[in-house]
Prior knowledge:
mainly alpha; Arc Repressor Mutant, subunit A; two-stranded antiparallel ribbon; 3 helices; elongated
Amino acid sequence: MALTAPERTxxxxxxxxxxRRRAGVMSEIVTALGVTGLLVRDTFSWxxxxxxGRAALWVLLQKLxxxxxxxxxxxxxxxxxxxxDIRNExx
Length: 91
């Protein structure tokens, strides 16, 4: 199941304890994720991730981690090639 950007934002908010309203997530998104079984309201009526919700958040975090790693590798590649260009010019 592909999550929309607001749904992903809500997972991050609940997982990090961030106020979803300050992040601009509307109550319709809360209802939608509740229907899909990714979140519930706890005994204090706070939003909480279900096991499936935690698994979905974990996958999102792993994808983010991979994207950041690829980005860093690209930066390192550019640094290495520019150093090689400088060495070639000095030779």
